[in-house]
Design brief:
There is one protein chain. 54% of the residues lie in helices and 7% in strands. The chain is built from nine helices and two strands, in the order βαβαααααααα. α1 links the parallel β1 and β2. It has one domain: Glutaredoxin (3-Layer(aba) Sandwich), CATH 3.40.30.10. α5 crosses α8 and α7 packs across α8. It is mostly helical and 163 residues long. The two termini are 28 Å apart. The longest helix has 17 residues.
Length: 163
């Protein structure tokens, strides 16, 4: 049986979920499928140019306090990002392009840690390269491959297009 985990690298609540889900899926003998998606196009379609957590102060304040409680309960480090939300497009392209690779779960968790535990800019390719495990091979090649037109289409549609 499979479990699809849909996540956005800039999403706060996806962070603690991403840090725990592989262990939980394994405990229940579920094959975990990592499914990145982008919130920015959804926000843009709604006419929003920012996160509702930024535009609605009370909602944002509650969310950050909720994140503190969740992360503390799960022993997950949390450092509120100095910029929120951050652009996770490159990380999403890598996760989509290399979805079948065994190193992807480690990469995903590393990106989340960079953003939400270390306050690093995950839109910076240097930060993303530092999140790519050495087993993936040449980090420049990984980033270059994830920036090709076909990788962009794959990220937009979430699956390979039929020939």
């Amino acid at each position: 049986m499979q479990l699809e985990f849909w996540f956005e690298f800039g999403s706060t609540y996806s962070y603690p979920a991403a840090m725990r889900i592989e262990h939980l899926a394994g405990a229940h003998n579920l094959e975990l499928l990592w499914k990145p998606f982008l919130l920015c196009p959804i926000f843009n379609n709604q006419g929003w140019n920012d996160s509702p957590f930024n535009t609605h102060h009370a909602k944002g304040k509650y969310m950050w306090r909720d994140m503190e409680r969740i992360c503390e309960a799960e022993s997950i480090p949390l450092k509120k990002p100095s910029v929120f939300p951050r652009n996770g497009l490159l990380a999403s392209r890598i996760a989509c392009t290399y979805a079948a690779e065994k190193w992807i779960p480690d990469f995903i968790r590393s990106v989340y840690s960079a953003n939400f535990a270390m306050d690093l800019d995950i839109s910076d390719s240097k930060v993303i390269k530092s999140c790519i495990p050495s087993v993936a091979g040449c980090k420049d090649t990984v980033v270059d491959q994830a920036s090709t037109p076909s990788a962009k289409v794959l990220t937009k549609h979430g699956q390979p297009l039929s020939d």
